[in-house]
From TrEMBL:
<dbReference type="InterPro" id="IPR007197">
    <property type="entry name" value="rSAM"/>
</dbReference>
<comment type="similarity">
    <text>Belongs to the organic radical-activating enzymes family.</text>
</comment>
<dbReference type="Pfam" id="PF04055">
    <property type="entry name" value="Radical_SAM"/>
</dbReference>
<keyword id="KW-0456">Lyase</keyword>
<keyword id="KW-0408">Iron</keyword>
<dbReference type="InterPro" id="IPR012838">
    <property type="entry name" value="PFL1_activating"/>
</dbReference>
<feature type="domain" description="Radical SAM core">
    <location>
        <begin position="16"/>
        <end position="241"/>
    </location>
</feature>
<keyword id="KW-0963">Cytoplasm</keyword>
<dbReference type="GO" id="GO:0043365">
    <property type="term" value="F:[formate-C-acetyltransferase]-activating enzyme activity"/>
</dbReference>
<keyword id="KW-0560">Oxidoreductase</keyword>
<comment type="function">
    <text>Activation of pyruvate formate-lyase under anaerobic conditions by generation of an organic free radical, using S-adenosylmethionine and reduced flavodoxin as cosubstrates to produce 5'-deoxy-adenosine.</text>
</comment>
<protein>
    <recommendedName>
        <fullName>Pyruvate formate-lyase-activating enzyme</fullName>
        <ecNumber>1.97.1.4</ecNumber>
    </recommendedName>
</protein>
<dbReference type="GO" id="GO:0016829">
    <property type="term" value="F:lyase activity"/>
</dbReference>
<dbReference type="InterPro" id="IPR001989">
    <property type="entry name" value="Radical_activat_CS"/>
</dbReference>
<keyword id="KW-0411">Iron-sulfur</keyword>
<keyword id="KW-0949">S-adenosyl-L-methionine</keyword>
<keyword id="KW-0004">4Fe-4S</keyword>
Length: 243
């Protein structure tokens, strides 16, 4: 019997969470409370759908030919996948056994010793660093930044291919010192292949309303093209590849 976990949903041909066409598994449960979360219904591990690793692998196998043809793979996203480390480890291990590339999208808010073993079966980490200023980070997510930086340093030590993701939120994460200090930190790491600058959007706002949660970014606009370009230019000025 394989491990059973909780998922929110799956997407059989994702194109934004790693290279090529991806089979994306969105796991249930997240300890963060990001103000802009577009999947607020992912929060509670008590919700979601129960599924076994065997069932997921059987589903993935229906798509392996075009996933491989596109240079894609399987991405575990969330929620926070590393809330269910054994489940995620087994999915990634089974995917690698059938020669499928594995990517893990994580906030990094994890106990590093618990998740080191999972990382052995992950080919690419998509690490969300939502802010470099700890106060802004806490305001945005309700949790501490330090575990994410600890994971980032560890991934660098083990030379694990990583893409850093940064959501650009006007009047929050866009502060000049925040972007330059993040750029400086990321440029000191050995393993980061690129940074993705993701413009804030409000596509999840209706879900907050449906769930009766208070959406605090109602009046925050998406970043202007000029602000996005300025942010990209700062990262590039530190020698980083962007998007
Ligand atoms: S880490 Fe992702 S799933 Fe969790 S609250 Fe933040 S945006 Fe939502």
């Amino acid at each position: 019997m394989t491990t059973i976990g909780k998922i929110h949903s799956i997407e059989s041909c994702g194109t934004t969470d790693g290279p090529g066409i991806r089979f994306v598994i969105f796991t249930q449960g997240c300890p963060l409370r990001c103000l802009y979360c577009h999947n607020p219904d992912c929060r509670n591990l008590t919700d979601g759908k129960q599924v076994s690793v065997d069932e997921l692998i059987a589903e993935i196998q229906k798509y392996t030919s075009y996933i491989r043809f596109s240079g894609g793979g399987v991405t575990i996203s969330g929620g926070e996948p590393l809330m269910q480390p054994q489940f995620v480890k087994e999915i990634c291990q089974r995917c690698q056994e059938i020669d499928l590339h594995t990517a893990l999208d994580t906030s990094g808010f994890v106990d590093l010793d618990t998740v080191k073993d999972v990382l052995n079966f992950v080919d690419l980490v998509l690490l969300d660093i939502k802010s470099f200023d700890p106060e802004i980070y806490r305001k945005l997510t309700s949790v501490s930044l330090e575990p994410t930086l600890k994971l980032a340093r560890y991934l660098s030590e083990i030379h694990k291919p990583t893409w850093v993701r940064f959501v650009l939120v006007p009047n929050l994460s866009d502060a000049h010192h925040n972007v330059t200090e993040l750029a400086h930190f990321v440029s000191s790491l050995s393993n980061v292949e690129k940074i993705e600058v993701l413009p804030f959007h409000k596509m999840g706002e209706y879900k907050w309303e449906q769930l009766g949660y208070d959406y605090q970014l109602k009046d925050t606009p998406p970043p202007s093209p000029e602000l996005v370009q300025k942010t990209i230019d700062i990262f590039k000025s530190y020698g980083l590849k962007v998007n």
